[in-house]
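Instructor's aside before we start: the two examples that follow are unrelated to each other. I chose them only because their records fit on one page, so don't look for a connection. First example below.
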Amino acid sequence: MTNSDTSTRILKKSSRTVWPIYLFLTIFVIIGGGCLLYAPVKAVKTLVFIRKAAVTTGTVEDLVAKRGSKSTTYAPSVTFNTPDGRLIRFVSQISGSQSAYNVGQRLEVYYDPANEGNAEIKGFIPLWMPVIIFSVLGLAFSGIGGGMIYAIRRSVKEAEQKEALLQNGMLEWETEPDWQSATIRSVTGREATFFWLFAAVWNVIAQPTGFICLNSAIYEGNRLASIGLMFPLVGFWLLWEAARRTLQIRIFGEIQLRMDPFPASIGGEAGGTIDLPIHFSSGNVFAVSLSCEQVIRHRDGNRKELIWQEGGRAAATLGPAGTRIAFRVAVPATEAPSSDSHLWTVRITAELPGLDLDRSFVIPVIREQSPRTSRLNVPLAHDLMPSEELPAGTVQVKGQGERLLLRYPCRRNLKTGLLCAFFSGWFLGGVSIFVFNSPGVGFVILPIFGMIGVGLLLYAVWLLSNSLQVTVEAGRLSVMRRLFGIPINSSSIETALVRRVEIVKFGARGTGTSAKLIYRIGADCADGTTITLGDGVEGRAVAVEIARQLRQVCGLSGPTAPTR
């Protein structure tokens, strides 16, 4: 089946199935629009009420139960006396699982002198929470519905344009709008826009939610509500990321990558130059990485998995705009070319005065009979990385002659360990608070969350406390694993029995373009056993260098075995 036949089939299928989605999302937009229209009306009514209201002191007479389908909330019933001595009673429109008010409590009350029954407790939550709720619901429903309609419509339009170009004989990669020339724009601008929109929608929902949870935790004694404070914290992080990306654009401008060759090819090279509007300094170090991500599609969404990555340094020289950087990276012959299921991304980073540089470019990588190489007169990025420069946080190397000592400290897994410990505390804390407040409830769900929390805690302890020492001397290879500094496992073998040393992809740390592949280094021995000579190693270049030194002292010739 040709590309044209496939696109036509997908397009016809989309046209038959997209209109029910439009209808469903339109309902979201209508509901959201109605809430947004009513929210300012309610706000004006509240302002008018406050302006003409009189203030008096009332007493909480009772807590009125409001039973829902799954829970019961309580609203304070308040009484107060008018100037002419009449007793007025009203029930506040705000209720909670545990009321913030006590029977007999004295508090200030707003009431309308022309209609004493129109009254409310004087406070931010009783007066303004309905406005906040309608605003949040309106923004959430209309934003989600409208945004998804726009995204679907845009994807359908792009599919139509791509289909027309394919029918005219263009190759699939040539139909991408961003790949019409060798000049590739950075995705940072689009990422900044996405973060601002996502942060706006998230914070509109999360900040009022956090305020309600904080009020419930402090004034109502509901400790379980403190878990909800996670949502505004995530909102603050989203705002920080959006501001950081926007500041990158303002300082460095619209940075573009001029590819050489264009496009890159499987089994060949990816390379190019970038002009930066910064003062040239020989002390600035620019790191470059080429990554391949596989897009795994599910019914509930897509997931990207980092499957290959190569890193090194770019060469920096004086350029017309200030500094010009150039790089070349070898593309493996075993990976797949650019497609809807495989994305190739170049990332350039540098620690610069004022603000660090961090830009990513999605580039085309195709498969050809004769792989293309770059015409740039610069070494490969991997070759520009000093071989002796290994991060001390990952491995500490001491070697002399035929003796080599490798120490992998506990902190090599610091970020992952702290993240696991954080989520473990979140799970276990939530379970503890829930059990404390509602004993005897959730016999099925709570043990599951508790086991997840315990599992994450044990894994965090392992990551943060295990270290590994590898020693090669006098013809023997010795390995010692320690936990909290206490030896728990050791092995030793003659170096003559080591058949090969290889690096194996173990996973990835981080997300998106900032993700780093994690490797394990192992030795295959003549007796059929495999010995771990390193784990938690971040970055292929570091893993390859460690394996090279191990192969050298073990007397093994030839290149490092390919990664599995």
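Example two begins here.
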Amino acid sequence: MKPATQYTKSGHINIAYQVYGSGPIDLVYIPGWVSNIDWMWACPELVHFFEEVGKFARLILFDKRGTGLSDRIVELSTIEERMDDIRAVMDAVGSPKAVLFGHSEGGSVSALFAATYPNRTISLITFGAFAKRRYSPDYPWAPTDEERQKVYEMIENSWGSGEMRLESLAPSLANDRVFMDWLANYFRSGASPSAAMVLTKMNTEVDIVDILGSIKVPTLLMQRTHDVDVKIEEGRFIADRIEDSIFVEFEGSDHLFWAGNTEEVLEEIRAFVTHVIPKVSYQKRLLTILTGRVIPSDDMSHQEIVGQFVGQHRGSIIQFDQGVFIAAFEGPNKAVHCSLDLQNAVKGLALELAIGIHILEGAVDQVHFVRDETELLVNEILKHTQPNQILITQTVKHLLSGAGLNFVPHTSVFETVLGEKMLLFDVKDNTSADKYHVDFKASNLDRRGSFLENVLESIEENISNECFGVEMLCREVGVSERQLQRKLKAITNKSPNQLISSVRLHRAKELILGHHDYNITEIAFKMGFSNPSYFSKCFKKEFGLSPSDFLQNQSRYEPVAKTIALSEMI
């Protein structure tokens, strides 16, 4: 029996999730690449796997932002934002701690989550996971640029129709046309062609090698020996770098865990989940440390501004001392965007900022005081940083794929407290060359999110106003139209008008799904459409069905019928 699909908010993004089973332990499944949690239940092999897991765990499924049944408002997302989605779903189902089960690309975000939030992670399980997706001499098993190009060409030429050449993911079922047709539809229903392309190119840049040693939770890594998509050497490489991890090799070549010898995979998971004894609490976790130097240092007007922007990006100030401040963040994306916002803010105050950002394994209570190793790190990174510059280490850069930023190699080399040498990169915002500048005003601090969060909040606050458009949105978020165009294109791959329309249509779909006592015309007016016919036309373009057909489809829902319809919406 397919569980009900529900929604929760990760910031302003709607994340679709399902809960199945009633076991005593929570297990969150983090799928690879793209997914559709409704379409999963149309595959007998995967349903059997879920049913077995549901006997010993409460299984939690979700679609990450931009894919499946979650909001398609964004196509670009960082690995850190995907962590936020996991945490939001766990909060929604009342799960303080859970086992994380990451498949393929989902293994990367699961690993980062376990290192960042060890006290919310019972244990970590991966299947067919990789640490990098791009060849390098120190990681020669990842695909070359030429091999990745073939994947891009498949998406470009075959995503919407034709053969997707997915047999390598499940060789044992390559001749099963029913399964292969389901798999192709599963991917198409999980993402549009453009979103699949953006996501694939982003994944090419992800690199979690530097954070593997920070994973302290009990870890089970599984992989099939002859997996073509992710080489067995990659699994062994990861296992060597995670302390006390268990690595299990299975015979076969299927990359999908629900194809081939699935009973063996299930037994390993069952034994690990039911017998592992996790620590009660962990004293260390991954932290992103931002250090800034204000020039001139004797001007104290910056302290309130810095404190508010850091809090706005969910960071914590841990020191102010003679023009130098240190802040801790849960991830690099928040730290970098806080830095960009800060630099824009102080331009109107005749101040300059030099900022450096690095990731380290620090004490959980690091946010309350500065430790000696952090002090050394701060002094070292600030040596290389000039006024009006943001420098990040290569570890930070590797986790910012999808952030819509440019990175320029710096001439200096950063040396950590352990003597390790790392490359430095200068962060360039895609909108930094904009000749229009909006002066900072204290009122701009009222909003409590990132740039995208503020944009979405502004749209939602004005969602019923048919006159609300790009000009009003610019005034609401305090940027020029040119800045807005560039920033939203970099972050969401949409123009401002497209984003406004998409938000309205997705909220209209929520009203339809919520079975409110509104007819289609009333919903159109509530979402800022003055013409119901135009609303229906836009809705059909966005979702593949007219509002009335969509409503009728929901009322007589059958899993296969709905997921086939969803695959046609893309």
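The chain has three domains: 6-275, 288-428, 451-556.
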